[in-house]
Amino acid sequence: PYACNSCDYRANQLGNLKIHMRIHTDDKPYACDRCDYKTGIQHYLSRHMRIHTGEKRYACDLCDYRTAESGRLNRHRRTHTGEKPHACDFCEYRTSDREDLKRHTRTHTGEKPYACDLCDYRGSVPDRVRRHMR
């Protein structure tokens, strides 16, 4: 296994670790040719391009909601069911979204995996570091 030296991420393949490291370095080699969107993951660019094509191939069977991403449809369905499958190990917090749980858990652990390129500032979410760097 390969371990990230900036957070607790572990990967079975070196390539996956290299892709993960882009979240710490803000390396975004994949760029949209229609707007300013950039990403470190090629699949994310493919998914982003659906914004420009308007393709929304995933539809909710309970309402008119449509989306370009299957994961968003799964999260949306939980608005109908009220399901909150992701539980905090430190408190009673539960959420329907795994990424929300990761962000929440950092309030307990103090983990700040995102770093400013210009100083020693670190943040628990990428947006705070970007805001700091402005």
Automatic annotation (TrEMBL):
Coiled coil: none annotated. One of its GO terms (molecular function) is zinc ion binding. It comes from Lygus hesperus. PANTHER family: KRUEPPEL-LIKE TRANSCRIPTION FACTOR (PTHR23235), ZINC FINGER PROTEIN 384 (PTHR23235:SF142). Residues 2-29, 30-57, 58-85, 86-113 form the C2H2-type domain. It holds the Pfam family zf-C2H2. InterPro entries: Znf_C2H2_sf (IPR036236), Znf_C2H2_type (IPR013087). This is Zinc finger protein 771. It comes from the Eukaryota.
